[in-house]
Design a protein that fits this description.
It comes from Megamonas hypermegale. By secondary structure, the protein is α/β, with parallel strands linked by helices. The chain has helices spanning 7-15, 30-42, 59-64, 91-102; strands at residues 2-4, 19-25, 49-54, 72-77, 80-86. Helices cover 39% and strands 28% of the residues.
Length: 103
């Protein structure tokens, strides 16, 4: 499920036990829009929530996690970031990333 979140929601999830993906994006970013379309299509197929965090609305959070490029995805398992991936990629690559890092 895609969830538009802010720093509070992200920090609350990070404190808990669970697995989720964070999409740091910007509304003005072309590759972010393209990846957003990929995530919308693939989200129903995966058992993990995808938090969408707008870097312009959550500047401190983006700085804290050293997001220098958008889009940037963080793969989180039990409060620990286990993988980071930046830039646009296809549905197949996203599925492969989920399988490699979240299983």
């Amino acid at each position: 499920m895609l969830i538009h979140a802010d720093a509070n929601a992200f920090n609350k999830l990070l404190e808990g036990k669970g697995t989720f993906i964070v999409d740091f994006f910007a509304t003005w970013c072309g590759p972010c829009k393209m990846l957003g379309a990929v995530l919308e299509k693939v989200a129903p197929e995966i058992p993990y929530d995808i938090l969408k965090i707008d870097i312009d609305e959550n500047v401190k959070l983006a700085e804290e996690y050293e997001v220098m490029v958008v889009p940037t995805l963080l793969f989180v398992k039990d409060g620990e970031i286990i993988h980071r991936e930046s830039g646009f990629f296809s549905k197949d690559k996203f599925r492969a990333l989920v399988q490699a890092h979240m299983q």
